[in-house]
């Protein structure tokens, strides 16, 4: 807000108010504009209601100062249209000496206030300033409400994710036992089929095929339950000093074969000055492995994956950038949700990034993604230099969200 | 090479699991004794020679960890493999700190299980062999004194 130093001592005037003066008397307008000019204000002008609406349709105006009695549309009629189409514009009406009733009607129809002609200029100025302050207040309120709504929405989403996670993990525990029974039963049948008495059965092949399907199904279900369980792996005392570039190299070793087969170049670029961090190496390896194997899956022949490690804001930033297919815009906000996957059934569990974000939350870090279709994807992970573990999952998720909101 | 059977004690409260895995292990030449609780496991260990105990962590009554402590106290040479359907790898790791040989997550891979059973049995055999030799040396020294 700019303050005009030339103004009188009683009140200040914002000189960046966008002002529109509407009156059918050109002389009156000219006189007023000149006086406004001396106070640093530069109002636009309109000679009638139509012109006024045309200006408003073209660009927004904060305050309209308008005569009620005009040929064609009256001020009241124009006011009704302004209130309908330009909610954020405030209107100050000017009435003739004997027609205060018009002014009252105007206020009832949504005018900020009215002034009686002949007007007292200082009075008009202060009314304009008041109307403008009202606009600022409303805008502030609107922004606050928007912010609150957005935050509540994110909190609700986080809570849903957390309880969904807890539920899924409970289910995973319980499912491993029947899975084991299925696997052992199928395994037993497979062994039986190798016995002499059954070796010549005409259905041997069919049995074997069905048993293989069962085994594959069990393996798939097991991948899901085990990955879910890794999400809630409790913190134990496995924190240590970690050389992140070394850990990255080591983890790349696990995906190197697959990358080589696809002709993908994998490279680590680390700032020479990066310090070690105090964190959980096992969980970090899981994070790296998830990001790297995603990158390998998304990248086609001859592509590349670059891992960058640099110091940032009291911690380290690790970036995994690939030249792969990229993530469409509509999927970006879903990729960290559990069971969201674009891979074929059986190929991905839809839990990798969900688990990754959960781990990073517990390690005091966060993850961001940037991607568009055909442009590859960039995952940025930030980790604090030193993090003291906490147990509570939901709290960390909130902290993560608060950080996101603040970061905007 | 002739397969040396491992004498396995399989302990899990999941009756169906014990039944099926026992059939499977017996079929490939191991000798399995089934048990469905920690108590039963300890009773059997008191009566039979067992090389490796496959022990479920989560059981009603005496749980796997408690049973493990008791096994290591009373039958220190018996190798124990922890089996967890309850995911918490931490408990399995705790088990290893208490002297368990290794652990497997349910549903376990059969070949991996066989491999680990073999290594566990060999470890127990070697340990017993060392004890025998030590005892023999002890005897020799004693007789030399006379």
Contiguous helical run count of chain B: 5
Q: What is the helix content of chain B?
A: 40-55%
- Rg value of chain A: 34 Å
pLDDT averaged residue by residue of chain A: 82
The total strand number of chain A stands at: 12
The biggest sheet of chain A amounts to: 5 strands, parallel
Please identify the structural class of chain B as seen in this structure: alpha/beta
In whole angstroms, how far apart are the ends of chain A?
A: 23 Å
Oligomer class: heterodimer
The total of beta strands of chain B comes to 5
β-strand amount of chain A: 15-25%
How are the strands of the biggest sheet of chain A laid out side by side? 2-1-3-4-5
Order of helices and strands of chain B: EHEHEHEHEH
N- and C-termini, Cα separation of chain B: 44 Å
> What percentage of the residues of chain B does DSSP assign to strands (E)?
15-25%
Strand order of the largest sheet of chain B: 2-1-3-4-5
Major β-sheet profile of chain B: 5 strands, parallel
Protein chain pair with the most extensive contact, residues per chain = A-B, 25 and 21 residues
* Average pLDDT, all residues of chain B: 90
- Total helices of chain A: the number is 12
Inertia-based shape of chain B: globular
């Amino acid at each position: 807000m700019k303050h005009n130093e030339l103004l009188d001592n009683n009140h200040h005037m914002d000189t960046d108010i966008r002002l529109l003066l509407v009156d059918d008397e050109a002389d009156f307008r000219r006189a007023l504009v000149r006086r406004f000019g001396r106070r640093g204000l530069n109002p636009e002008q309109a000679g009638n209601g139509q012109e006024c609406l045309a200006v408003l349709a073209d660009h927004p105006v904060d305050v309209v100062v308008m005569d009620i009695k005009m040929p064609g549309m009256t001020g009241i009629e124009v006011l009704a249209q302004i209130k309908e189409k330009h909610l954020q514009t405030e209107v100050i009406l000017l009435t003739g000496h004997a027609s205060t009733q018009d002014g009252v009607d105007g206020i009832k129809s949504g005018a900020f206030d009215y002034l009686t002609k002949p007007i007292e200029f200082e009075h008009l100025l202060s009314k304009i300033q008041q109307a403008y302050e009202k606009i600022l207040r409303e805008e502030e309120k609107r922004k606050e409400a928007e912010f609150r709504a957005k935050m509540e929405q994110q909190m609700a989403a986080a809570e849903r994710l957390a309880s969904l996670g807890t539920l899924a993990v409970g289910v995973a525990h319980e499912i491993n036992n029947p899975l084991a029974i299925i696997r052992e039963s199928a395994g037993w049948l497979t062994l039986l089929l190798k016995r002499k008495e059954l070796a010549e059965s005409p259905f041997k092949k069919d049995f074997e095929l069905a048993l293989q399907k069962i085994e594959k199904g069990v393996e798939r279900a097991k991948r899901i339950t085990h990955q879910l369980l890794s999400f809630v792996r409790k913190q134990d005392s496995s924190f240590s000093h970690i050389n992140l570039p070394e850990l990255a190299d080591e983890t790349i070793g696990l995906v190197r074969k697959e990358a080589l087969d696809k002709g993908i170049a994998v490279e680590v670029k680390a700032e020479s000055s990066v310090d070690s961090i105090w964190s959980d190496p096992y969980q970090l390896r899981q994070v790296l492995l998830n990001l790297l194997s995603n990158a390998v899956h998304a990248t086609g022949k001859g592509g590349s994956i670059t891992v960058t490690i640099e110091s940032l804001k009291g911690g380290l930033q690790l970036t995994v950038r690939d030249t792969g297919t990229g993530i469409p815009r509509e999927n970006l906000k879903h990729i960290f949700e559990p069971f969201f996957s674009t891979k074929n059934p059986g190929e991905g569990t839809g839990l990798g990034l969900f688990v990754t974000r959960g781990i990073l939350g517990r390690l005091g870090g966060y993850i961001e993604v940037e991607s568009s279709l055909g442009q590859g994807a960039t995952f940025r992970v930030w980790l604090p230099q030193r993090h003291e573990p906490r147990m509570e999952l939901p709290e960390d998720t909130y902290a993560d969200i608060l950080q996101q909101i603040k970061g905007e | 090479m002739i397969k040396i059977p491992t004498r396995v004690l399989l302990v899990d409260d999941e009756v169906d699991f014990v039944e099926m895995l026992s059939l499977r292990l017996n079929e490939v030449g191991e000798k399995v004794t089934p048990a469905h609780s920690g108590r039963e496991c300890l009773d059997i260990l008191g009566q039979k020679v067992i090389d490796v105990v496959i022990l479920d962590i989560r059981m009603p009554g005496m749980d796997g960890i408690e049973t493990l402590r008791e096994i290591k106290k009373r039958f220190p040479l018996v190798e124990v493999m922890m089996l967890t359907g309850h995911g918490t790898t931490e408990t399995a790791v705790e088990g290893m700190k208490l002297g368990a040989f290794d652990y497997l997550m349910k549903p376990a891979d059969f070949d991996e299980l066989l491999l680990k059973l073999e290594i566990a049995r060999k470890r127990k055999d070697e340990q017993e062999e060392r004890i025998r030799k030590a005892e023999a040396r002890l005897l020799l020294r004693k007789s030399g004194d006379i």
